[in-house]
Write a structure and sequence with these properties.
Chain lengths: 237, 237
DNA sequence: TCGCCAGAGTGAACACCGTTAACAGTTAAC
DNA sequence: GTTAACTGTTAACGGTGTTCACTCTGGCGA
């Protein structure tokens, strides 16, 4: 018990600030969540927020981390919700869940996945909480794909089909994918790449010149990339 | 000859302004290209720019249109550069060219493709010059795919494999694709979706946790999606 | 219980931003 | 040659993130 009364008050205020920031984000997009606007939202002066966050960017980073955690929790709940579902069903579930969350929270999704990610391998790398939360999020998909492969290895390209340079980079990621062979890692990354690209395009409006409702297209694509992982069609509604 | 001296001066100034805006864009990202900063760049006061652009947003829109045109010109030059190349080669050429341009001009690419596109079907639709330039850009890919199909129709999903809702939306886009059948339209959109998503992910850094150099992965994916259009592997270097 | 100090909050100020208004000089047109 | 349009200016308004100096108060150790 090291939580003094003031610590609890402080934590509550931090939560209030992030809640206000999110409200502004939802209502007016990323550009609307300003330091002064947040302060105004809870009847404080702008400099007061500097007691809780070092800068405006820090506030946004904390909000991003929170949103990643919320999204991750939602997907985990979806994954563990139906005990009847097999691993393939679970993958379809969370893929659709990711799309649903993105469409239901476009502003939040834009904040998480729309902004360019600074290269952490560069010399100025500092692992923000947002990076860590993003890794927890990505791990949900990674673990599921790895489990699927472990349970029923899907056919994958042979190593000599991949080309030496690609092969070397895939091998380096093999242990991250629980020791899957390079060809299987390639298919896993293809799955993620296509799913991510598809959802980003839909949410960011890059698809509504072609589809007024991209849901059917999404399902078809999901089935396509699921097939590559040896999964059956889920529910062709 | 209705170009008075002042008209030419004015056009030159407009070009200067956009050049300065682009310089700032390249040097410091989208957030660095401000009205005052642009004015400072060419020794003007900020309100002077309002003689040439109605607002800051108008300036950005004009810059976007210019960049689309530049990109389109580059791809067209690539397409028409090698008279020996067949249509398939040309498609690989401009796909790689798009990636190269994106990697060489990440800030410009982010401005063109990173920002959410407002739905033009909504009631507040106003066709900006940027929209028109984007359509000219997209037409380069569309025409090439349509020509490829016309020359050598690639195998495509039958209509009953697509599902009724997806089929209806694809049919509506058939005439835009020079009367291609729905299944072929589906494959064309898949091509574009995957290419676009892939490049966005690489440029926006969403891929460098997996690949330090995504070039080999890009080539492999490009071959994959080219195969679906009945094309041979270009140059497996 | 007293004293003290860290924590929380304030208003003023700085430098920037997009934008508007009122004004002056130049240039083209009638 | 007069006039009107065009191009530019400075001043100002309201907005932003941020820092500084200041006050007040709650919780801790002596």
């Amino acid at each position: 018990m090291e939580l003094t009364r003031r610590d609890r008050q402080r934590a509550a205020t931090v939560a209030e600030i992030k809640a206000a920031a999110r409200k502004l984000l939802v209502e007016g997009g990323a550009s609307s969540v300003g330091l002064r606007a947040v302060a105004r939202e809870l009847g404080l002066s702008a400099p007061a927020l500097y007691r809780y966050f070092g800068s405006h960017e820090d506030l946004i980073s904390a909000l991003i981390a929170d949103l990643y955690d919320e999204l991750t929790d939602a997907l985990v709940a979806l994954r563990d919700g139906d005990p009847e579902a097999d691993l393939g069903d679970k993958l379809f579930l969370i893929a659709g869940g990711l799309r649903d969350w993105a469409l239901a929270h476009p502003a939040e999704f834009g904040l998480l996945f729309g902004a360019p990610v600074p290269n952490p391998d560069a010399d100025d790398h500092e692992l923000t909480p947002g990076h860590l939360a993003a890794m927890r999020f990505a791990a949900v998909f990674k673990e599921l794909v790895a489990q699927i492969y472990q349970q029923q290895p899907f056919p994958h390209p042979a190593e000599d089909e991949l080309g030496p340079e690609l092969l070397a980079q895939l091998r380096r990621k093999s242990e991250f994918f629980d020791g899957m062979p390079a060809g299987a890692v390639y298919l896993s990354l293809t799955y993620w790449t296509r799913l991510y690209g598809l959802i980003c395009m839909e949410v960011f409006g890059q698809l509504h010149w072609a589809f007024e409702d991209a849901g059917a297209y999404f399902q078809a694509q999901l089935f396509e990339i699921g097939e590559a992982l040896g999964l059956d069609c889920p529910v062709p509604d």
